[in-house]
Amino acid sequence: MALIFLLVELTFMFHMKYTGLGKVGVKFGRSHLNFTDLKKPMNEPAELRRRIAELEKLEAEHRLKLEILQGSENKYRVLLENLPQKIFHKDKNSVYVSCNNNYARDLKIHPDEIIGKTDYDFYNKELAEKYRADDIRIMGSGKTEYIEEKYIQNGQEAIIQTVKTPLEDENGNTIGILGIFWDITERKQIEEALKESEERYRTIIEYSNDMIWTLDTEGLFLFFNKRSEEITGFNLEDWRGKSFAPLIEKEELPKIIDVFQKTLNGEPQQYEVTVKKADGNNIILLVNTAPIYSKGKVVGTVSFGRDMTERKKAEEQIKESLRQKLKKSNKQRKLLCYLIEGTRGGKTRASILRHLAEKSYNANQLAKALNKDYKTIRHHLEVLVKNGIITISNDGYSDIYFISKIIESDFNEMDLKL
User: Fold this and answer.
1) Alpha-carbon span 192 to 176, nearest angstrom
2) Going from the N-terminus, what domains does the chain have, and what CATH number goes with each?
3) Which of 198-207, 244-253, 344-353 has the highest mean pLDDT?
4) Which of 18, 57, 52 is CA-nearest to residue 35?
5) Are 120 and 203 in contact (CB under 8 A)?
6) Residue 345: CA atoms inside 13 Å, Cβ hemisphere, count?
7) What is the mean pLDDT of residues 147-151?
């Protein structure tokens, strides 16, 4: 290369020496040759050596820049070929100019074979027209777009994430489009599965017969379900970010705060609590509360509450009924003891009760069974009926006697002693 520049310079020197040209100069790279100077006598060997040295220096600099450029190109090509994404370049007519190995591998071609091809050469008409329409739109807008779209990979339909951006020359004219895409099928499947799971559990939560709510670590409401709204009369939006404390009866609040702190310490809790409703009435809830974890740290609580108000009322009614029955039973027990042990004819009445404990009788049957006269048996039966110890019904022929349900268990206990 240096010799070529040297020959050019020598040619100009020759013309200057023998044609007598005026003061004219020419530049070669960084070297400026003044033709006027050539009219002057010079030491030609020294001048030639200087010129050769300059040209060799220029050539070395050029070669270094070329090596740097080639090294940079190789570095980026290695990077391009080792990226997991598929990359392609099309001209302004959507004709392929180049692509990386990953994309070529999908198409089962060598990267060089894509040059001059279009999407119609690789995809069905529907996809090819869709890709082409995207190219035209993006090159027309001059803006980068992110697209989720279908893609055929190894004969199977996949979902890809594509980034397409227009390419411009130094004058700002669009000359093509660059595309980068990658397979997101597995990610989309996971997202869909999570979405379905979320919808399923949301349905369970929203339509549960139990109240469900969550609190943060400060005891502020994050969420409660529709059932909670229906039972309490409160709206979630009115209570989101507010403390649970105003809803708890004053005398129960210390206990509930303690329960909340234990839950934050990782201890699930079960308890009963009285909660105020929007209408001012109270409800009684049976609650299970558990900590909510995120990355091993407790970040809140979730509670499941069942309205026990009606059940509690029923339990109280049953307890009161039992108290009344017990009170009455005690009276009956005392009366029974008196009729059997404290008066004349007690043994006969005890015998009557033992027989009635086994089955029902009429007066005649009892008289025969006890070998007593009818009038005596009839008298004792009337005493027992009058005092509620036995009951009477009629089978259409005669009166039938039974032990009263109220004192049946008491009699059985006493019967062991008789």
Assistant:
1) 35
2) 2-79 (no CATH), 84-188 (3.30.450.20), 210-307 (3.30.450.20), 324-415 (1.10.10.10)
3) 244-253
4) 18
5) no
6) 14
7) 85
